[in-house]
Amino acid sequence: MTGLAVGQSWCGVAFLWGAAQPSILTAIRYRDEILRPLVRPYAGAVGPGFLLMQDNARPHVAGVCQQFLQEEGIDAMDWPASSPDLNPIEHIWDIMSRSIHQRHVAPQTVQELADALVQVWEEIPQETIRHLIRSMPRRCRECLSLRLALYQHWSLYESICNSSYTSCNFKLWSMHGQKKLQEFLADMGMKDIRIQTFGVHFSFKNRFLANDVVHAAAALLENTEKDESLGDNFIKALDCLSRSNLECLHGGIDLAKKKLMAIQQTVASCICTNLILSQGPFLYCYLLEGTPDVKLFSKPMALTLLCKYLLKAFVRSTRNKRCKLLPLIIAAPMDVEKGTVIVMGIPPESETSDKKNLFGRAFEKAAESTSSRTFHDHFDTSSIIELKMEDRTKFLDALITLLS
């Protein structure tokens, strides 16, 4: 390994700025050549409070390296996925790369490239490096967000009320939950409300978080307000990803707000009217025809959000410990003319349970054993199935028998 540069910073903290090597760095080499001989003794010298900063490169997050850090009691800082904004060395590499490309004669051999890199490194003004270091607080702020849906695009109160995380923690479907929210707004403090995320600026006024764009694109893709084809909706969802079509993105965010409010209202209605029933091996909820916004939940992504939100809310509100460990199956009218319903299943909310979704295979077996007429027109076949309305009862009975 060559080109190792260690810089001393404030508070006795040392930063490893860069390392160049002639071969590929694997997880085993990272553990044996960096973590064990360099990081471990330095962590021991620093003592309590040592925190390892590394990005999410594959060798860094591999199981053997994570196990080594855990065994040695070395804490590593959480890092946003693929985020060069939080790694100053990435910006230095960019400066060096552009300097190399601007040369009249490009390096022809590995040695010439190595010599050119050393020369370019020495030519970088120290003020450039200081500027990158001073920019780190701002970069960290840009990569931190709130666990609130679309909070930059409507009021904080609306965002809290219509985000599953806060709504379920406050139990906003109850009067007691509403009172707790008012007390919270007076105190303005909540544990784990901040998350790591990415943002983008379009001009000075338009700032969007990654989560905002996901909500907007999904809302446009499953728009039920206009009777348009799936192809048209797909094109609009694709258009909202372009920086030249901000109007489309803003329209998607407006649709996303309506969808989140519809989900929150449906969850509150299901909890308050006890529509979630225990069927033995799973919980079951059926949205009746005529339920407000039921057409929205004929779409798989909207139904997925509702299903996850509903299970989280139910777990927070029930006192039945067994029910807290059960998965949830939800059904909603799909196509009234065809007489079909869409059925979805998700694993339990409990953190100690297996998160793998096995409903896809269970749905197939239940349909085969009862000769239920099913349709498989969705990308996600692991948790969603469409079947005839009149087959719903025997299909569920078969599922109960199969999963018991």
TrEMBL record:
Domain of life per record: Eukaryota
GO molecular function: chromatin binding; DNA replication origin binding; single-stranded DNA binding
Family matches, as Gene3D superfamilies: Ribonuclease H-like superfamily/Ribonuclease H
GO CC, any one term: DNA replication preinitiation complex
GO biological process, one term: mitotic DNA replication preinitiation complex assembly
Alphabetic keyword roster: Cell cycle, DNA replication, Nucleus
Residue span, Tc1-like transposase DDE domain: 35-104
Subcellular location: Nucleus
UniProt record similarity statement: Belongs to the CDC45 family.
Protein name per Swiss-Prot or TrEMBL: Tc1-like transposase DDE domain-containing protein
Species in which this protein is naturally found: Coregonus suidteri
